[in-house]
Specification:
The longest helix is centred in the last third of the chain and has 19 residues. The protein has 3 helices and 3 strands; from the N terminus they run E-H-E-E-H-H. A 3-stranded antiparallel beta sheet has the order 1-3-2, covered by helices on one side.
Length: 82
């Protein structure tokens, strides 16, 4: 799909959620791994990742970061059956 971006990296998923990229699905791959499917173009998501790695300033509240980490951990544990 053109407007689908998949990552296996938890913190990339957190970043994309913080930047309001819609999380479409979390898929269980095996007993230990999931993949995160986002509803956005790969180019848009890669641009956000690059900005993160280049340490470009982003207006994100620390509380929002913590909330997204907790929310995604909850989803992952639910998918893995833990």
């Amino acid at each position: 799909m053109e407007n689908t971006y998949i990552t296996h990296d938890f913190y990339t998923a957190v970043l994309l959620k913080l930047k309001e990229i819609p999380l479409v699905e979390v898929r269980r791959l095996d007993d230990r791994f999931v993949e995160f499917v986002f509803g956005a173009s790969p180019a848009e998501c890669e641009q956000l990742k690059q900005a993160y790695w280049e340490r470009h300033p982003m207006q994100i509240a620390l509380r929002d970061v913590i909330d997204e980490i907790k929310m995604l951990k909850s989803i992952v544990h639910e998918q893995l059956g833990r």
